[in-house]
Amino acid sequence: MIPAPYLLYLGHSTDSVGIKTSRGLAAFRPGDCVGEFRYDDCPLTLGLPRMSIAEGAAAGAKTLVLGIANSGGTLGRDLVDDAAAALEAGMNVASGLHQRLRDQPRLAALAKEKNLQLFDVRDPPADLKVGNGYKRAGHRLLTVGTDCSVGKMYTTLALTQAMQARGLQADFRATGQTGILIAGGGVPIDAVVADFISGGIEQLAPARDDEGWDLIEGQGSLFHPSFAGVSTGLLHGAQAEALVMCHDPNRLHMRGIPGRALPDLGECIEINLLTARLTSPEVRVVGICLNTSAMDPAEARATCARTEDRYGLPCTDPIAFGVDAILDELLCPASSARSTTASR
């Protein structure tokens, strides 16, 4: 486990989606977050006390979490400088970027000198096996999306917590840097060699016979040219009996690719079902989750209602309105026909 409490890094960020790791920790592990570190040119905030590196250390932070995501997951000079400052102040450093902290000679030397640790969250397990798609016992749900960064992790966590509130056995299975930091473990599936993606998910959510549920965090989108391979491997490895589609109705284009439109929601549902059926022939969609954070409550509810009417599936914003309707659909066997028909 990465030592808590945390000082959450925003740095020079101006993209609200790009700080999703810091935001996720602030939302789901608030008791472990003492403050946020950001420069004057950063207009974003998590609503936490703003602190310098020295102030964070004085407040008891044990780890600086570089909770930002950039294209390619690179460690720029500013990140290395700030990580070095945290080590000098006596804090460990954690990062979910593709470039590893341990591969930075300056940081590795400082960590050794100060007897501190560098945590590279995107390190996949070394013993992953190739997937086989054989039928396995247990209940599994996977979140999928029209694009990357549309709320799949938030939806998966919301569903997990709601199931647990109903007295059901439910386990969140993290597949990305933010989810792994929140859960304390998982498989960073976008850092896994392609041949082992489906096998990594089979290992993350193995067969179970306790009638409990594995709620698997989705990644990317089948319609995103950069990340569709990861999404495909997840669908095959999850062997899910249920999918929940996630979508940001305010997004103008695929993330990172201006000019490429988002897919039609109905087409996206059908293609995800078609892909998932390779290993789970009876898979069904049990709901749609929208990120309506940019809308006022009335507009958000109206958008959810229109989407629900159009596709015949329960539709909600999991953070604003909860997920009870989706759980009712999931747990009611009679709903299967409705979900399958609505997606076609």
TrEMBL record:
Domain D-glutamate N-acetyltransferase-like N-terminal: 46-124
InterPro entries membership: DgcN-like, DgcN-like_C, DgcN-like_N, P-loop_NTPase
UniProt xrefs under Pfam families: DUF1611, DUF1611_N
Domain D-glutamate N-acetyltransferase-like C-terminal: 130-327
Alphabetized Gene3D superfamilies for the sequence: NAD(P)-binding Rossmann-like Domain, P-loop containing nucleotide triphosphate hydrolases
UniProt superkingdom: Bacteria
Identification of the protein by name: N-acetyltransferase DgcN
Source species of the chain: Sphingomonas agrestis
Gene that produces this protein: dgcN
